[in-house]
Design brief:
Elements: H1 2-22, E1 36-38, H2 46-54, E2 83-90, E3 94-101, E4 107-114, E5 121-128, H3 135-143
Antiparallel strand pairs: 1-2, 2-3, 3-4, 4-5
């Protein structure tokens, strides 16, 4: 009987620790930081921008704020990117980037990178539909559960 209880406890611990590895990391420390606004792609640190663009496999282009981009799924000119930078923020520890993504349904993406090591590490990513103009509005969407961290999801649309 003691062996059965012991195995039951071990099984419970293993299954709960395994299921935790499938959940996205909360990575909420970035919500506590103050950010210097980034209003252009030229202000985004190159290693962060390179890391983000590398994830955009089928169309690795990003228009700058105010530039022309394909907001719909109609492709008239393939040289025009289907994504456009909206806003960003930079602190000593994190860089966040928000961009519009055109296609069948126009939506926006948030990507947050930890920049405390030599290579930026993506720690939070989500999609959203609300119009945002400031980093504080983005942080409030996350705080109010309007955006969830999708790190680790099988399908990552960039």
């Amino acid at each position: 009987m003691k062996l059965f209880v012991f195995l039951l406890i071990i099984t419970s611990l293993v299954s709960s620790s395994c299921s935790a590895t499938w959940e996205p990391e909360p990575a909420t420390d970035w919500l506590q930081c103050n950010y210097q606004p980034l209003t252009s792609l030229k202000q985004v640190p190159k290693p962060v921008l390179d890391e983000l663009i590398m994830k955009m496999s089928y169309d690795p282009k990003l228009a700058d704020r105010g530039e022309k981009f394909r907001a719909t799924d109609v492709i008239i000119d393939e040289t025009i990117p289907c994504r456009r930078f909206i806003l960003g923020g930079k602190s000593d520890q994190f860089v966040l980037i928000c961009y519009e993504h055109g296609g069948y349904g126009l939506h926006s993406h948030l990507a947050v990178f930890d920049v405390t090591s030599s290579k930026p590490k993506l720690i939070f990513t989500s999609t959203y539909l609300q119009e945002t103009k400031t980093v504080e509005e983005i942080k409030n969407l996350v705080r109010n559960d309007k955006m969830k961290n999708k790190i680790g999801n099988i399908h990552q649309e960039w």
